[in-house]
Specification:
The structure holds 2 protein chains of 2 kinds. Chain A is mostly helical. In chain A, about 55% of the residues lie in helices and about 5% in strands. In chain A, β4 and β5 form a beta hairpin. Chain B is of the alpha/beta class. Chain B folds into 2 domains: about 80 residues, no CATH class; about 300 residues, Alkaline Phosphatase, subunit A, CATH 3.40.720. In chain B, the strands form 2 sheets. In chain B, strands 1, 5, 6, 7, 8, 9, 10, 11 and 12 form a 9-stranded mixed sheet that branches. In chain B, a hairpin with a 5-residue loop joins β3 and β4. The chains are: A mainly alpha, B alpha/beta.
Chain lengths: ~525, ~400
């Protein structure tokens, strides 16, 4: 990189407004768009000259003083490389690792828990006394709610403190992409395992990720495929698998394709009975070898439609489990999938309406690398479109809450994530609470409405005013540690303050307490974007 | 900060589009319009039962609602062909008898994607299906643009697509109403930070609407003291909406989820029955809360599509096409079924699986808006471009 080039980029970045001005008013000046001409920058990675604070703020769950220090000492390229290819078991701060290890979801395996609860439900049905039955059912329901909260706690702790910040963001992204709803049936018991499955594949190959999701009980239950059987067809999963998970709604598939895919998916389901006490089902001799049971997942030949199917112009020979692999290959390698996934990644990381040339380059990379997610992300990160979008992506509530707590407490571990879950609930983006399979919206308009903003300012006040319950443990004897949000920190003075608009500085100057100053900073237009 | 202070504040912000602020005085005694969107695809054969169709009883061996007079949970006859789900007897049926409820079977959209999200979006945009569409322009927003002084609000967590557009419309979710912690001085400081940003109008509207809602709900909130709604909380939410629309808002939007019944929807009891009961109770609580103003009120209840006419393999139903709309209110010509109809036979199903759409939503709603607000052809063309409004006499 030559010096003049560096200065060009710096000037371009400086010209970007953090928040544009009101559109459509005749009296307003044109909105600065932050567009960077690719030609002016040359062919090399645009990351070489990027504002490190802005980059960290985008690739992590929110910049902190220590993350800024990290990228400065490692250098941008190496830091990005580590984020794209992180070690599998990152060292968490010991206090955080301890909190996670103490959660019951870390010690009880999913099949064991689901089988146990199914059995208990069965026993509860047999209780004669109605009051007793009701109270037993209520207790069991609350126990499951507690498990759902544990999973959310683990997710938030990792988002706050894991060194694998990109992997954690991608885990949230894929959960949202392959969304399931915690209050459907016994989903709460499956969330921990499901999320961990997504985490493992979050930066790997899309085909592996899709293959793991298709066979996961959480998905099979949520989209009703556990009920999909020959002569009892349920189209739900087949439709969403193409519309939301792979091809996208405009890819040109038909209702006939949906029906044919539903036939392929027959027999892939969930068995909640204990294999130790229940004999496997009986099959005709030629089918017996195809019966599969792994944990809760099963392929049941008796429920499968063995006829041939026509999917997207391809004949799928009726053969049992192999059909599923063929379909996963077909869908994950379809050009429409490369475009659809690339576009969604660009929406998450760049803008509501990402530039088509960027999507095309990402999709090409997707196809050439057989869906290597890290490679596609690298293409995006190194693009001028991405660099030009830094500091301009509006935060959804999860990004807002996590980035605020990270900025306020950096690596000092919180003791209780419940306040964060409550804030996300108030803003309508609580973990595992999206009822529909489309996941939470990623666009600005969904989260920047008037009601959203007033709620956000309320939460800014809660976070800014003190420890807000984050440092009060929930054990039988709750202890509270003193903690005050430290927003007036090196990150603020070195990276945030220089970019604040005059109006924001003016408001901050009028704060009449540290609490109010915190609230104003967290409410500022500059803190709403990443 | 009160409304006047906010207006002063807004006036001091030169870069804000003042036309986008929504608190111009509403016309007194004006019409009230509420759109209720049932997200997930309501199985309308459960709500409006084709008791005259033998095919219906063959197509749904496990989940049909029995003919009137046949047992405890039988349908309530509206005429010889149609019946109402029995769980609606105390609420929607009463409104029907009072001639304040009309039902429009075979309603819906020409969108055949059978995708919840695609269909909800295309309905909310209200634009022609062919050609390029503006994803930031909803038909409710375009309606509000045509009316002077109409005050609009969405009672949802997010501003819904139908209410997005060039007019800034506020949202306020009533599930989680709490006493605001950010005081007037702090609100002014925050608004000041946003003065020159594109979010200025949204920030100001948010504070303004919050103050209005708090004022209106002050009594109710101190009475009930518990802000959180239970799982059956739709009735309370509907009451709050009724209160706010009675006092303040002319046009509103509300959505209710949970209608995607692929599995075990139940017959005359069970999951879907419970949801319908909740809906019926809520709508009638809303009517109650509107008081005399109910006479000037129209509520339209829609869903993105109906469901398969036949039950599926899991005693549920899959995504279908034609649905049934409800029109409620003192201003509605109720106690009847409206719009084009046909007998339901195997041969008349759409793609041999769903109810056909004979009453396209843009035509029907255009007809309602035309009557309700005296809008002319060019107004209606702005709200629903390229649609032919069809007055089916709902109001």
């Amino acid at each position: 990189m030559t010096e003049p080039l560096t200065r060009t980029v710096a000037r371009l970045l400086a010209s970007m407004a953090v928040i544009g001005v009101a559109p459509g008013c005749s009296s307003t000046p044109p909105v600065p768009q932050g567009k960077v001409e690719p030609r002016a920058l040359g062919p090399a990675s645009h990351l070489a000259v990027v504002d490190q604070y802005a980059l960290v703020d985008r690739i992590t769950w929110g910049a902190t003083s220590s993350s800024l220090q990290e990228i400065r000492s490692e250098g941008t390229q190496r830091w990005v490389e580590e984020q794209l290819h992180p070690p599998p078991d990152p060292p968490l701060p010991p206090a955080v690792a301890q909190q996670i290890a103490a959660l019951s979801i870390e010690t009880t395996l999913m099949p064991q828990r689901v089988i146990n609860v199914a059995q208990r439900n069965h026993d509860i049905d047999k209780i004669v006394d109605e009051e007793q039955r009701k109270s037993a059912r209520k207790d069991l329901g609350e126990e499951q709610n507690g498990i759902g909260r544990e999973v959310a706690t683990r997710m938030l702790l990792r988002a706050l403190y894991s060194p694998n910040q990109l992997q954690e963001q991608m885990t949230w992204f894929w959960f949202n992409h392959f969304n399931v709803f915690q209050y459907k049936n016994d989903e709460r018991l499956m969330l921990a395992d499901y999320e961990q499955t997504l985490r493992v594949h979050a930066l790997g190959r899309f085909r592996d990720l899709l293959g793991a999701v298709v066979r996961h009980p959480a998905m099979l239950v949520y989209l009703d495929n556990a009920q999909n059987a020959k002569d009892h067809i349920n189209e739900n999963y087949a439709r969403e698998l193409m519309e939301l998970h792979t091809l996208g709604v405009d890819a040109g598939y038909t209702q006939r394709d949906v029906q044919e895919l539903a036939r392929v998916l027959t027999g892939f389901g969930v068995d909640r009975r204990d294999p130790a006490t229940v004999a496997p089902p009986k099959f005709r001799p030629e089918l017996a070898a195809q019966y599969t049971r792994q944990g809760l997942y099963e392929f049941n030949p008796n429920r499968h439609d063995y006829g041939d199917k026509q999917l997207l112009g391809v004949t799928i020979r009726g053969s049992g489990p192999a059909e599923l692999n063929q379909v996963i290959d077909l869908l994950s390698r379809h050009p429409a999938t490369a475009r659809f996934i690339s576009r969604k990644l660009a929406i998450f990381f760049v803008s509501d309406d990402p530039p088509q040339p960027l999507i095309d380059r990402m999709a090409t990379r997707f196809a050439r690398t057989d869906g290597d997610i890290a490679a596609v992300l690298r293409t995006m990160f190194e693009s001028p479109e991405f660099v030009g979008s830094l500091h301009a992506r509006y935060k959804d509530p999860v990004h807002y809450v996590v980035s605020a707590v990270r900025a306020a407490y950096d690596d000092k571990p919180i003791l209780n994530a419940r306040p964060m879950i409550n804030w996300l609930n108030r803003m309508g983006e609580a973990p595992y609470n999206r009822q529909t399979p489309d996941g939470y919206p990623l666009n600005e308009a969904s989260w920047a409405g008037p009601g959203q903003l007033t709620t956000r300012f309320e939460i800014a006040k809660a976070i800014g005013s003190g420890s807000a319950g984050l440092f009060k443990s929930e054990e039988p004897t709750p202890t509270e540690r003193p903690a005050f949000p430290q927003l007036s920190n090196p990150l603020y003075f070195e990276a945030i303050r220089p970019k604040l608009a005059d109006a924001t500085r003016h408001a901050l100057d009028q704060a009449n307490s540290p609490q109010e100053w915190n609230m104003l900073l967290l409410s500022s237009p500059e803190f709403m974007v990443r | 900060m009160n409304r006047r202070q906010l207006l002063r504040l807004a006036a001091s912000l030169p870069l804000v589009c003042r036309s986008s602020l929504l608190w111009a005085a509403p016309q007194s005694g004006g019409t009230r319009f509420l759109l209720v969107f049932l997200r997930g695809g309501l199985d309308t054969q459960h709500l409006l039962v084709p008791i005259g169709s033998d095919f219906y009883y063959r197509a749904r061996p496990n989940i049909a609602i029995a003919r009137p007079g046949q047992g405890e949970h039988a349908a309530i006859a509206l005429d010889s062909y149609w019946g109402l789900h029995p769980v609606l007897e105390e609420n929607l049926y009463r409104l029907y008898q009072a001639k304040q409820l009309a039902l429009v079977p075979f309603a819906g959209t020409d969108d055949e994607s059978r995708s919840h999200f695609e269909t909800q979006d295309s309905i909310e945009m209200g634009q022609p299906l062919a050609g390029s569409r503006d994803f930031q322009s909803g038909f409710m927003n375009r309606l509000v643009q045509r009316l002077t002084g109409a005050e609009a609000i969405a009672f949802t967590d997010q501003v819904p697509l139908s209410m997005r557009g060039s007019r800034q419309i506020a949202n306020f979710a009533l599930r989680s109403v709490g006493k605001p912690a950010v005081d007037a001085r702090q609100s002014a400081l925050i608004a000041g930070m946003y003065a020159n940003t594109k979010l200025a109008a949204a920030v100001n509207d948010g504070f303004g609407v919050r103050e209005e809602v708090m004022k209106q709900l002050a009594t109710e909130m101190s009475d009930s003291s518990r802000g959180a709604l239970g799982p059956k909380g739709f009735e309370l939410e509907a009451r709050r909406i009724g209160h706010l629309m009675n006092e303040q808002f002319d046009i509103a939007f509300l959505d209710v989820g949970g209608w995607d019944t692929h599995v075990g929807q139940g017959a005359a009891t069970g999951y879907l029955t419970n949801r319908l009961e909740e809906l019926g109770k809520g709508l009638s609580a809303f009517a109650d809360e509107m008081g005399p103003r109910w006479n000037d009120t129209v509520v339209i209840v829609i869903s993105e599509f109906g469901r398969t006419f036949r039950e599926n393999g899991n005693r549920g139903t899959d995504h279908g096409h034609g649905t049934t709309y409800l029109a409620l209110g003192g201003a509605v010509r109720g106690g009847r079924l409206a719009g084009d109809q046909q007998a339901i036979e195997e041969s008349t199903l759409h793609q041999s699986r769903d109810l056909p759409v004979l009453n396209e939503y843009r035509s029907v709603l255009g007809g309602v808006f035309g009557r309700l607000y005296g809008l002319n052809e060019s107004d209606l063309a702005a709200i629903f471009p390229d649609a032919k409004s069809k007055d089916i006499g709902l109001v």
